[in-house]
Amino acid sequence: MCGIVAEYNPFHNGHQYHLEETREKLKADVIIVVMSGDFLQRGEPAIVDKWSRARAALMNGADMVVELPTDFSVQPADFFAEGAVSILNSLGCDLISFGSEDGNSQAFREAADLYIENEAELDDLFKQAHQQEKTYARNFSDVINTYFDQFPLDLTQPNNMLGFAYAKEIRRNRYDMAIETIPRKNSHYHDHELDSSFNIASATAIRRTLLEKRQPCTAVESFVPAEMYDALNSQPLISWEDLFLLLDYRLSVMSIEELSQIYLMETGLEYRLKEKISDAVSMREFIEAVKTKQLTWVSLQRICCHILMNNTKQNMIMSEKEIEAVRLLGFTEAGRDYIGRHKKEWSVNLVSNLHKRTAVNFEQDIKAGHIYRLADKERIRQQDFYTKPINFIDINTLN
Amino acid sequence: MCGIVAEYNPFHNGHQYHLEETREKLKADVIIVVMSGDFLQRGEPAIVDKWSRARAALMNGADMVVELPTDFSVQPADFFAEGAVSILNSLGCDLISFGSEDGNSQAFREAADLYIENEAELDDLFKQAHQQEKTYARNFSDVINTYFDQFPLDLTQPNNMLGFAYAKEIRRNRYDMAIETIPRKNSHYHDHELDSSFNIASATAIRRTLLEKRQPCTAVESFVPAEMYDALNSQPLISWEDLFLLLDYRLSVMSIEELSQIYLMETGLEYRLKEKISDAVSMREFIEAVKTKQLTWVSLQRICCHILMNNTKQNMIMSEKEIEAVRLLGFTEAGRDYIGRHKKEWSVNLVSNLHKRTAVNFEQDIKAGHIYRLADKERIRQQDFYTKPINFIDINTLN
Fold first, then answer.
1. Which residues of A are annotated as a binding site for ATP?
2. Confidence check on the interface: ipTM exceeds 0.85, yes or no
3. Pick from A286, A312, A338: which residue ends a domain?
C-alpha cells in the first residue's frame, strides 16, 4: 500500500508519470493520495476545485483520494508534512512515494536521520538565523550546510525540501513506512514558461499560462491528461485575484488587535497590512507592496489565507489538532476493495458524505470550501454537502 | 438658523420643495443639513455616494451639509433622531424643519410633550407589547393609541414617526429649537411606482425605478433636479445586492458566538442567519428567507449592516457615544460665512479634511466608506481621505 502527498494544481503529465513509476518501479498494488483541498500549501486557492483534481488523479493511476484538512494544507512544509504523512500512516500505507529533483531515495533517509539526531542543536541555530534578513528556506539550507560538512540533499530545491519533510516525519514518528522517491522528469519546479519540445511542464508554468491566457487554453493541452484539460476549460479558473475583494473587505473591517491574533502573523505586520491595503487594487500589487526580504510572497499569501478564514493563533494551536476523520474524495474499484478490507484497522474515520453528524469534523474545510466558491461568480453552491465521492467504477460504466 | 435631518437617497424634487418652503415660509436665513453618509437609516447603502447627494442639496437650497456619523445613521428612529438633532443643536440651529404626512407643527409639539410626560408608563407597555408577533412600528402606534384617547399624530405614517422622534429629542433635552413641519406634497412615502402626472415622487419609488432599469434612466428625469440626475447617470448605482457577496463571506466566516455579539442581534437569530445564508444567492432571497412577523425587512437589513461593519454590542453602547467632531461635506457662500461667524461657539469640531489627527474621530465612517466603495466594481478609492468639502462658491465660479 503506497501513499502519495499531492496538490495536483493542476494534475499534469508529470503527476501521471509519477503515478505510473510508483505502480511499476515500486510495485505499488494500491495507491492512496492525500491531496490538499481548496487552499494550498503556498497559501493560495487551487486553480480548479478539489473534485476535478481528484477525478483526474483517479483516471490516471490513483486508487483513492482523500482530502488533507485545510488546517494542515495552508502551512509551512513541516506542518503540511505532519498532517499528510500521519493520514497516510493511519490509512495503512507502508510506503511513501514522492517526486524530487534529487531522485536518490537513500539520500532522503540519511538526511532525515542526520537531522533528527541533531535536532536540538539545529533548532537553536534556526532561532538565531531567523533574526537575519533572509527567507526561511534560505536560512534553513544555510544552517544545514554550515552545520554538516556534507549534507546528502540539496535543500534549496523545493521538491527535495518537501520530500525531506515527509522523510523526517516518518523517521521521527517511527512510522512503518518505506521512503522512496521518483526523480522528476524534464522540468524544474520553478520553470515559469512552457517548453513545447516536452510534454511535461511544472505546475507553476501551467498555472501561469492558464491564468494569463484564460479559456480556452490550448497552450496547456499537451501538458495535462485529457480529463484535466476538460476540467480546466469547463470550469472557472480561480486565483487569489478572485478573492482579493474579500481580503480587502476583511482587512478593512478587522482591528489591529484582531489582526495581530491571526495565525502566522508576525509582529508589526498587522500595521503594514492595514496601511498597504487601502491603496492596492489587486493581490499582486498588495503583496508586492507588503513583502520584505524576510517575508516572502508565499508566507504572505499563507497569512492572507488565515486572515480570510479568520484562523487565529488560539484556534490553530497545531499540537492540539488531531486528525480523527478524513474526507474521501474518490476511489477506483481497487480503492473500494482496499477500503472494504482494511477500514476496521484504521485509527481515522473515512467519511464519504457530509451531513450534520459528520460535518463537525470538517468545519474548517466547509468554511474554506464556502469561501472558495465565493471566488466564482457563477458559483455552484454547497460543494461539500451535496457532493459524493467520485466513484470510478460508475465512471467506467458510464463511459 | 434652521436645521434639517436628511438622507437624500436620492435628492429629489420633493426635497427641493421642502428646502424652498423652509426658506420662504419659515424665513430661514441659513439652512444646515445633517445627512446620513454611505449607510442609511433603513439599513442599506445609499444609491449614490454622500458627495453627490450633498452637492445636489447645496445646489438646490441647502447652505451647509454635514455627515451624520454611521453609528447614528444605521439605527432605529430614536437613536437616529438623537444623533441628528444633537448635531443640529451643537451647530446653533434654533429651528428644525422636516417634511411630514401630517403637516401640522403644533401636533408634533403636543405629541412630543404628551409622550414625555407619560414616558415611564409607556416604556413598560412597549416592553410587554414587544413579546407579541408584531413589528416594532405597529406595536409602537398600537400602544400609543391604546394609552391615549386621542393622540395628535398618526404614527403609522413613516415621516410623522421620524418627525415625532425629532420633536421628542428636542423637548426631552430642552434644546432651544423651534419645531416646524412642512406638509409633503403629492406623494406618499410608501408609493412604489412613479406617477408621470406629477413631478414629485417618493425616494422609494425613484430608487426602485433606478435599480430596476439601471442607467441611463430617463424615467426618473422629471422627478429629480438636474445635478442629481447627472450623478445618477454617471455613477454606479449601489444596492445591497452589490454587497451581498461580502455579507455571504462574512456570515460564513463568523462563529455563532461572534454573531451573537453583533449590535441589534436578537436571540436565536444568529442560527437562522447562518442557516439561510448557505442557500441564498441574493440579498432579496436571503432576507425573504430570514424575515418573520416581528423581524421586518428593515430591521434585518440594519443587523446585516452591523454584521458587515463588525459592530458589536460592546462597541455600540450608544449611551457612551458622544459626538465630538462632525464631518463637513460641503457649503455655499452663506454657509461659509455662517461657519466663520459661529464656529467658536460650537461644542463640536467641524472637520473639513481627514488626515491622521482628525481621522480618529471618524474611524467608523472611514470603515463604512471603504466597505461602500467595495460595492462598486470600478471603485474610486479613498473617498474619505482625498476629498475636500464641496465648495459651492468655487462651483459657481466654474459654471
1. 5-18, 99, 159, 184
2. no
3. A312
